Amino acid sequence: MATAELQGSYGGLYFGFCTLISHVLLAGITAAIVYKCLVLKLVHTAGHAFYCTIGFVFFMGEALLVRNSAYLESSLGPLNLNRLHAVLGLLAFLVGVGGIGIKTWQKLERKREDPNATVRHFKSNHAFYGIIGCALLLGSVLSGLPLYFINGGFALKMFHRFFGLSGFLALMVSQMFGYNTGFGRRQWKAHHQKLFKFFTFIATITTANYEFRRFVRDVAGLATDYFIGSDATEAREDL
Fold it and tell me: Looking at the domain 21-214, which fold is it?
């Protein structure tokens, strides 16, 4: 009993430390990029980077963090915590997709002004993981709506969590590839790009690790119940 309590205490301290690091890094990365984009007056790719970073890095990361916060749950209550989680998730989708829309519109305008211009849509790793992340985030939003208004079943909750977690991971990978784009190379020196990648990677791990652990544990529990339950049922039927 004492060993289990000690392990639980250490686990709580570890995940609490990870959460603190996540809040600091998500806010710091967002503030640094937003400041640069505002200095550039949101022209061209700066507008895309501004909205995508706020939506996909900050709002999405915070949506994952607050949902698993025992402190906020005790302070706000389960219902208000779910509302906060839902608002952050919806803002992540709307603001982030708005950023993608800005970049897509700019490319279409360039093609309209110069029909001979070479315009690539979703060909880079940055764009590929970004569009995959958006699709997964859309799945999270659509599966989250019925959960918000009605008490959905276990399967729907698992799909919602899968879409949210995998969408966040894909979008953070896209963010890291974004530092290698022409915009990233023009605005930051090589060592600054490396620092952004490093801090974004750490923020990804510290933000996702608790939800990933819970998700894997719940999937393993579901699989165990299914297979062991099936074996037990067959054994009873044989009797």
Answer: Four Helix Bundle (Hemerythrin (Met), subunit A) (1.20.120)
